[in-house]
Write a structure and sequence with these properties.
The complex is a heterodimer. By secondary structure, chain A is an all-alpha fold. Chain A is built from 20 helices and two strands. The longest helix of chain A has about 40 residues, at about 385-425. In chain B, helix 1 (about 10-25) links the parallel strand 1 (about 1-5) and strand 2 (about 30-35). The chains are: A mainly alpha, B alpha/beta.
Chain lengths: ~425, ~100
């Protein structure tokens, strides 16, 4: 077993984790992550606009009357999140190439705006249609940001730029350095979207449609769940590896779900990132809150007693590295088994509950360090049944972890006895 | 002694930071410890740290961190996985001391 684990680590988990550090993947992930505070802020206003109280209460009536105003902060942040993400991707990718990140971020943003196109409205003037500035436009944003920064990098490497004498202040010199790549990139964008009138968004929409559909299916949900615990079993941060590929799709689901709620339509997707966060990763990756509860209930060894007491509070707030490395779960076959199985079971339960309509799909993003019942309640826009689902999943995880933990704990007890007798002798 | 930790978000290492601080206090060593996320590390490591420690769950990014730490002249090492817990104070202190030498 140990040899098998070592084999998997050397040939599978470590190379895959390194792959996720590929510069483009990483900057897309970092760009999305940079936009999260704005997404969280905006999504709070969805709860205010659709308060989880009876439809005839004073608050609900007030919200209904002022809904357009209440949703303004949402529309200017989460609803157009791709605008923020684009800058983030351009910024992080240029930073990783060690070229001026500000130029990279700005150029990416400009390229992205070129794909939107403008309309003229009587009495208003020129307007930017907002739909593609949101989740819809995310894939186009990824493409044009990478294109923009790669051109910037090429010009830098080949020294295709206007060099000013050293006596010129650096900030002025830098803006001139970016001039040629900016002209190049935006000329190309002008040709694509203005001269040839190519609608990048509809093309890319068609291309990624199968992916967007697959990611929301049962297998599209269960595979990332399995991979995340698989990586953690070797002590590698699973969400950061798997998220490098899956996160853009998860954010598109979230954006679509929230847009549907704001427009008063049915919620289209089951599995935005918030689905995993609140229904599956209760206590952290691997649903380890159940393990810590099992530890508090049944621990016999001194070590797991102490560990249970010190890790229960971080676990409630979904921080579980102390459990994963402390117990440890990492490279520990007895505990890896429930660590992988538990989330597969709870995912299945949550997926079924959501798809048959027992629980509202998640559409609000709140900070991941909230206790799961509160997070689940808020992210479903205040559905009390989400709390029930969380409690069911916690109970299931306690039950699955319990026998495996007991097995491991008795090994610890034996070890402690041995140490005691050898130190006494 | 000034010790810089890096983990995924700077959250989980805060727990290891507290364990290390307590252990250092017990041993009468003055110690300043900061935990940062992966995105902040490259910039922060240049601010005069004695040692930099990388959390085990981001060890696939170790090469990149090591390069930045080397450039700043800061010794850099992985945190032993078993030490990365609230009970890992003594092991952490030992690792930090060895790295400092």
């Amino acid at each position: 077993m140990d040899k098998f684990v070592a084999f998997l680590e050397k040939y599978l988990s470590t190379p895959m984790a390194k792959l996720s550090e590929q510069k483009h993947l990483r900057s897309i992930r970092d760009g999305v992550v940079a936009a999260l505070p704005f997404i969280i802020f905006g999504s709070i206003f969805l709860i205010i606009a659709f308060p989880p109280v009876g439809a005839d209460t004073a608050i609900a009536l007030w919200a209904k009357k002022h809904i357009a105003e209440i949703l303004i902060p949402y529309r200017l942040t989460m609803f157009i999140m791709t605008l923020y993400i684009t800058f983030g991707i351009g910024y992080s990718l240029s930073a990783s190439y060690k070229i001026d990140p500000l130029s990279g971020g700005l150029l990416s943003t400009a390229s992205f705006l070129f794909t939107i196109g403008i309309k003229s409205m009587e009495g208003v003037g020129f307007v930017l249609p907002m739909t593609n500035l949101g989740g819809h436009g995310l894939f186009v944003a990824m493409l044009v940001s990478i294109f923009s920064v790669e051109v910037l990098r090429l010009c830098n490497r080949k020294k295709i730029m206007i060099k000013l004498p050293d006596s010129v202040p650096t900030s002025v010199a830098r803006s001139f350095e970016a001039l040629i790549p900016v002209v190049l990139v935006l000329t190309v964008m002008t040709f694509i979207t203005v001269v040839f009138k190519v609608d990048l968004h509809s093309i890319v929409d068609k291309a990624v449609a199968p992916l967007v559909k697959a990611g929301d299916s049962y297998f599209g949900v269960i595979i990332p769940v399995f991979l995340i615990t698989f990586f953690w079993s070797f002590g590698i941060h699973g969400v950061s590896v798997v998220g490098a590929v899956a996160r853009p799709v998860w954010e598109v689901y979230l954006a679509n779900n929230s847009a549907a709620v704001a427009a008063g339509q049915a919620i289209p997707h089951i599995a935005p990132e918030t689905f995993f966060q609140w229904f599956i990763w209760i206590g952290g990756s691997g649903a380890t809150l159940g393990l810590v509860i099992a530890m508090l209930l049944t621990a016999k060894s001194k070590y797991s007693k102490a560990l249970g007491r010190t890790t229960i509070v971080p676990s409630i707030f979904n921080i579980n590295e102390p459990v994963i490395f402390g117990l440890p779960i990492v490279l520990n076959p007895v505990l890896i088994i429930p660590f992988v199985i538990t989330p597969l079971v709870t995912t299945t339960v949550a997926y079924i509950a959501t798809s048959v309509g027992l629980v509202t799909p998640t559409y609000v993003m709140v900070p991941w360090t909230l206790p799961a019942p509160i997070g689940a309640y808020l992210s479903t826009g205040g559905d009390w049944r989400a709390i029930v689902l969380v409690l069911v999943n916690i109970s299931l995880s306690v039950l699955i972890y319990l026998p495996f933990f007991k097995m491991y704990d008795s090994k610890l007890v034996a070890q402690e006895l041995e140490e005691q007798s050898s130190s006494a002798a | 002694m000034k010790v810089l930790f890096v983990c995924s978000g700077g959250m989980s290492s805060a727990i290891a930071v507290n364990a290390l601080k307590k252990e250092a206090e017990k041993n009468g060593i003055a110690m300043e410890v900061l935990a940062v996320g992966t995105q902040e590390f490259d910039a922060e490591v240049q601010n005069g740290w004695d040692v930099a420690m990388v959390a085990p769950q981001v060890r696939h990014r170790f090469d990149g961190f090591k390069a930045s730490a080397d450039a700043a002249g800061v010794p850099c090492q992985l945190i032993p996985p078993q030490a990365y817990s609230p009970l890992g104070g003594p092991a952490l202190l030992k690792a930090v001391k060895e790295l400092k030498k």
